[in-house]
Amino acid sequence: MAVRLREALATLPGYVGGRTVPDAIKLASNETPYPALPHVVARLTDTLRAANRYPDPASSKLTAALAERNELPVTRVVVGCGSVSLCQQLVQISTQVGDEVVYGWRAFEAYPIVAAIAGAAHTRVPLRDEVHDLAAMADAVTDATRLVFVCNPNNPTGTAVRTADLTAFLAAVPDHVLVVLDEAYHEFVTDPDVPDGRTLLDDHPNLVVLRTFSKAYGLAGLRVGYALAGDQSVATGLKQVQVPFAVSQLAQDAALACLEPEAEKELFTRVETVLAERARVGNALREMGYAVPPTQANFVWLALGERTADWAAGCAEQRVIVRPFAGEGARVTIGTPDENDQFLDAARALAE
User: What's the farthest any 2 CA atoms get from each other in the chain?
Assistant: First the structure.
């Protein structure tokens, strides 16, 4: 007799990560192209010696540091195993079977997965001109809605909603609906009219802001992110459903090391390099005739429609791996200047 598993598994979408191909440039996963800082690596030596011990289950030191930096009480800050893990925990604490999650589409592909795992229904609201249509998303909220995801800047388009639109949206959403502002790429934002979600927390107790150390801080392989909650009860709920010891001590100590002034200064020098390359790559693609919307992240989006799969395959033939979304477009991470040059050569050869 076969083991009986949940019927939902038969239709559960699988997460598709960026491919890694030997001897090819990987521009598919929005990672920083630079290795961890020597300062950060050195700090982890003692942690490795204590690998026989469990990590601090509350991530106490890191939580305290993040609370101080964000001017919040520690009771409203939660560290998690990457921000995607916190996405799943937020759905778990806010929905039951039959409840509803609303999000823009296309956005981060984990949203429908974490909703389905919890047994929640989900409503996709189409983007408008590659940007979240917040007015339509507010209209999509029903009595069954318990959570709304807003990815800002949006993955995979890199576009961002503006402060006035977001504040109007928050005012329109009922107070009992949790709004999750996913700001994984916040450190790459240069437009002053793109909101900093932290500044909205005190006025909106139903708001949660997600951040991560995976992108600008270069710790994608260690899995550490955090949530800033408008209300303490949400933070408490996140801790209740978190897997024990979910955040390794390596991740906690590396994140703390990244927050030290000298380390952070060097990290953000790297961010400035990425921003300069982002502008160069985007301008070059537009000059080739590609449709590339303005981006506030560490990647660019090429709206290729039905050409997408063939175009991505053409890049792979030239040893450049990008992230295609069949029938829609391709997301290309900003790499080093040399990597970007190789990508632009491939894009030029594939331009119509």
Answer: 61
Show the domains of the chain with their CATH numbers: 7-36+262-350 (3.90.1150.10), 50-260 (3.40.640.10)
Q: Bridge-partner residues for 78, per DSSP?
A: 227
In a 13 Å sphere around the CA of 160, the CA atoms on its Cβ side amount to 29
Say if residues 335 and 33 touch (Cβ distance below 8 Å): yes
> Exposure of 153 by Cβ count < 10 A (0-12 exposed, 13-18 middle, 19+ buried)?
buried
> Distance between CA 313 and CA 127 in Å, rounded?
26
Between β-strands 225-229 and 299-303, what pairing exists: parallel, antiparallel or unpaired? unpaired
The Cα-based distances of 285 to 13, 41, 291, 327, 349 in angstroms read 32, 36, 8, 19, 12
- The pLDDT of residue 20: 87
Distances (CA, A) of 4 to 1, 143, 168: 9, 33, 47
pLDDT value, residue 14: 83
φ/ψ of residue 49, rounded to 5: -65, -25
Query: From the first residue on, what is the mean pLDDT of each consecutive set of 10 residues in the chain (352 residues)?
Result: 84 84 94 93 92 97 98 98 98 96 97 95 97 98 98 98 98 98 98 98 98 97 98 98 97 97 94 98 98 98 98 97 97 98 98 82
Alpha carbon distance 180, 228 (integer Å): 10
Closest CA to 297 of 130, 178, 133, 135: 130
DSSP line for 98-155: T-EEEEEESS-THHHHHHHHHT-EEEEEE-BTTB--HHHHHHH--TTEEEEEEESS-T
* pLDDT tens digits for range 80-123: 999 999 999 999 999 999 999 999 999 999 999 999 999 999 99
CB 281 within 8 Å of CB 334: yes
Task: Match 């477009």 to its residue by tokens.
Answer: 329
**Residue in the structure block whose two tokens are 């921000």:** 83
Q: What is the pLDDT, as a whole number, of residue 89?
A: 98
pTM for this predicted structure: 0.96
